[in-house]
Amino acid sequence: MRPEPLPPQHLPAATPTAAPQTARYLTNNEAAEFLRLSPRTLEKQRVIGGGPRFRKFGRRVMYAVIDIEAWADARSFEMTSDPEYAEQHTARRPGAR
Fold first, then answer.
1. How many domains does the chain have?
2. DSSP string, 3-68
3. Deepest of 7, 38, 58, 80, by most Cβ within 10 A of its Cβ?
């Protein structure tokens, strides 16, 4: 016994300006410039951790703009007395009080 076909869904017509978003990738130097960091800082963060997510295509390291923005947003605080800010910055420094 076959199930009945589903009725067609009425979807709004696609507008010509609504093109599908493709992921945009930046090189290490472009990502560093985007974040206003040193390219060396991103290189170090790839080794020790703590930096934005990256992708490897062969020998090339690439960063998706979406990942860079998410990483930057995760480091957004309103003030230095914000409990999350204090927790992150005291946890990194051994011997910090």
1. 1
2. PPPPPPP--PPPPTT-PPP---EE-HHHHHHHHT--HHHHHHHHHHS-S---EEETTEEEEEHHHH
3. 38
